[in-house]
Q: What sequence folds into this?
């Protein structure tokens, strides 16, 4: 950031420097700071596909999904064969529950960049939402080869196997996720229900103890 800061001081109205500055802040998850730089860059250079794509991604991170789509649609017109635009736009559409639209974008992104773990994981989640469970597992397995420690991927895989009534596999997958992200609320909640389904009462109690729910539930094994 040091050299970028110096460049910005020397030329505060340079759209390229502002965009790069904003992109670095995006990577560092300083989304508000990134937006400030990218807004300024956009005023100076309103038809820059990279600025629009980056700002669209920041808006997505800030959960402004409609705003993200506006920027990404403009970026797509300027750069129609960019895999990142398709992936980010697909993820934004997923969050807006436009699953079919998301799938179309993610399919295009996959053709352009077939080894992108985020694209594959997002497409797997979209296919899960569309109940294309086998296709979802195929994408998620490919993504896991590329990024084996991705907790989100493991959680989605567990949910897909749960949908397919593969409860043992789902539980084992959540156990793997728990190793990388111990005491995660979602993982513990899901493990609680899966162990209950599988009549594994003791692990259920252990999950509840960690989650801190025993004091709010009248848990009685005799009544399970």
A:
């Amino acid at each position: 950031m040091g050299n970028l800061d110096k460049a910005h001081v020397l030329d505060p109205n340079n759209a390229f420097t502002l965009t790069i500055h904003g992109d670095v802040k995006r990577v560092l998850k300083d989304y508000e700071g990134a937006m400030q730089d990218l807004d300024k860059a956009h005023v100076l250079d309103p038809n820059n596909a990279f600025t629009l794509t980056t700002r669209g991604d920041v808006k997505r991170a800030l959960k402004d999904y409609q705003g993200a789509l506006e920027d990404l649609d403009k970026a797509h017109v300027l750069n129609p064969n960019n895999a990142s635009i398709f992936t980010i736009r697909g993820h934004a559409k997923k969050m807006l529950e436009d699953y079919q639209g998301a799938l179309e974008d993610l399919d295009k992104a996959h053709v352009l960049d077939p080894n992108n773990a985020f694209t594959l994981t997002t497409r797997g989640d979209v296919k899960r939402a569309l109940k294309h469970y086998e296709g979802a597992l195929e994408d998620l397995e490919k993504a896991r080869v590329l990024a084996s420690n991705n907790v989100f991927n493991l959680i989605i895989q567990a949910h897909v196997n749960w949908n397919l009534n593969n409860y043992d596999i789902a539980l084992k997958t959540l156990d793997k996720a728990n190793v990388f992200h111990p005491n995660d609320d979602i993982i513990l909640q899901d493990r609680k229900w899966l162990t209950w389904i599988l009549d594994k009462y003791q692990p259920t109690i252990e999950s509840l103890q960690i989650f801190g729910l025993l004091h709010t539930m009248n848990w009685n094994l005799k009544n399970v």
The domain at 2-164 is CATH 1.25.40.10 (Serine Threonine Protein Phosphatase 5, Tetratricopeptide repeat). Confidence is low (pLDDT under 50) at residues 6-10, 214-224. The CA atoms of residues 99 and 157 lie 18 Å apart.
